Amino acid sequence: MNITINKTTKTYNRVSDIIDSLTINPNPDAVAVLEEIGTNSSIDEVREMTARALVKRNEPTSLSVVITQRGKGINDMSTVVAMSTINCLLSLEDKEEAMKVLENTISDEGIEEDVRENARSVKALMALS
Fold first, then answer.
1. Nearest alpha-carbon partner for 66 in 49, 54, 80
2. How far is Cα 80 from Cα 51, in angstroms, rounded to an integer?
3. Phi, psi (5° rounding) for residue 98?
4. CA nearest 35: which of 67, 68, 62, 16?
5. What is the distance between the alpha carbons of residues 46 and 82, in angstroms, rounded to a whole number?
6. Where do the structural domains in the chain lie, given as residue ranges?
7. Is 123 exposed, middle or buried (0-12, 13-18, 19+ CB in 10 A)?
8. Which of 14, 24, 17, 114 is nearest to 69 (CA)?
9. DSSP secondary structure code for residue 37 in this structure
10. What's this model's pTM, rounded to 2 decimal places?
11. What is the pLDDT of residues 89-126, one digit of tens each?
């Protein structure tokens, strides 16, 4: 039993280290890797870590992934992932980029209504924080 726990912990730590490295990597391709691998994971914890990493980058491209895409970030089917992403957005020191992405999402008629509604709610929360 301890062997299984240790293997799981080691794997989790490795995944966490990889996500952390991609967070600080200035290469724009890092966002694509986080989006492709992390946000599409079947494991809630990996999606949660990835969403936090994308928010921490605080760039239009990374914020767009967690704000405008169905099933990712604030639109994740897991309430834990969605709320964690919202909390990260609320805790940003500089909210300017996030507010721009939220505004663009809200006004984009090509984006699904439920995604726009989530963006509207998060924008209201951010305006109060």
1. 54
2. 11
3. -60, -40
4. 62
5. 13
6. 2-128
7. buried
8. 114
9. I
10. 0.90
11. 999 999 999 999 999 999 999 999 999 999 999 999 99
